[in-house]
Amino acid sequence: MSAGEHAPGLALAADATGLSLGIVAANWHLDIVDALLAGALRVAERAGVKTEVVRAPGALELPVLAQALAEDNDAVVALGVVVRGETAHFDYVWQTVAQGLLRASLDSRTPITHGVLTTETREQALNRAGLPGSAEDKGGEAAAAAVNAALELRTIRSS
């Protein structure tokens, strides 16, 4: 069984025309984050959603910027890369980011999906970035999850 074998992937539940998607992308590991961003934008375009993209100085700033984007968007995607081999505080960074994104999502009542790669090596991150030859497109998957969650919330809130 491969990693992600049972993941929902890039499937969209329904037409999402009219929804807006905020995307916040970190400025570290730009080649990888830009590939994640390209994947997210491809899914957003396919879904027919309007996008707003902002850049975060680093991963730790993703939650506050995601929360700000949640004020004016139906869903938000946070994109970044944290590689264990390049920082002694790997666990602190990824846990802080994950907890911050969850808190921002719950506080804003807006789906904020976690497209932040946490890997042991740069090669693992490249393999998940949606580049030609990559095994996965985590940016696209995070965008699809955000759009699908926003569609579900729209249904719940309109009933």
Automatic annotation (TrEMBL):
Q: Pfam families attached here?
A: DMRL_synthase
* InterPro entries in alphabetical order: LS, LS/RS, LS/RS_sf
What does the entry list as the binding residues for 5-amino-6-(D-ribitylamino)uracil?
A: W28, A59, L60, E61, V81, V82, V83, H114
Q: Where does this protein hold (2S)-2-hydroxy-3-oxobutyl phosphate?
A: E86, T87, R128
Q: What is its EC number?
A: 2.5.1.78
Enzyme active site: H89 (proton donor)
What's an example GO cellular component term for this entry?
riboflavin synthase complex
As recorded in Swiss-Prot or TrEMBL, the protein's gene is named: ribH
* Organism in which the protein naturally occurs: Segniliparus rotundus (strain ATCC BAA-972 / CDC 1076 / CIP 108378 / DSM 44985 / JCM 13578)
Could you list this entry's UniProt keywords, alphabetically sorted. Riboflavin biosynthesis, Transferase
Give the pathway annotation: Cofactor biosynthesis; riboflavin biosynthesis; riboflavin from 2-hydroxy-3-oxobutyl phosphate and 5-amino-6-(D-ribitylamino)uracil: step 1/2
Could you mention a single GO BP entry for this protein? riboflavin biosynthetic process
- Please describe what this protein does: Catalyzes the formation of 6,7-dimethyl-8-ribityllumazine by condensation of 5-amino-6-(D-ribitylamino)uracil with 3,4-dihydroxy-2-butanone 4-phosphate. This is the penultimate step in the biosynthesis of riboflavin.
Could you name the domain of life of the organism this protein comes from? Bacteria
Please report which protein family the annotation says this sequence is part of. Answer: Belongs to the DMRL synthase family.
The GO terms this record gives for MF are: 6,7-dimethyl-8-ribityllumazine synthase activity
Q: What name is this protein filed under?
A: 6,7-dimethyl-8-ribityllumazine synthase
The protein's annotated catalytic reaction(s) are: (2S)-2-hydroxy-3-oxobutyl phosphate + 5-amino-6-(D-ribitylamino)uracil = 6,7-dimethyl-8-(1-D-ribityl)lumazine + phosphate + 2 H2O + H(+)
What lineage does the source organism belong to? Bacteria, Bacillati, Actinomycetota, Actinomycetes, Mycobacteriales
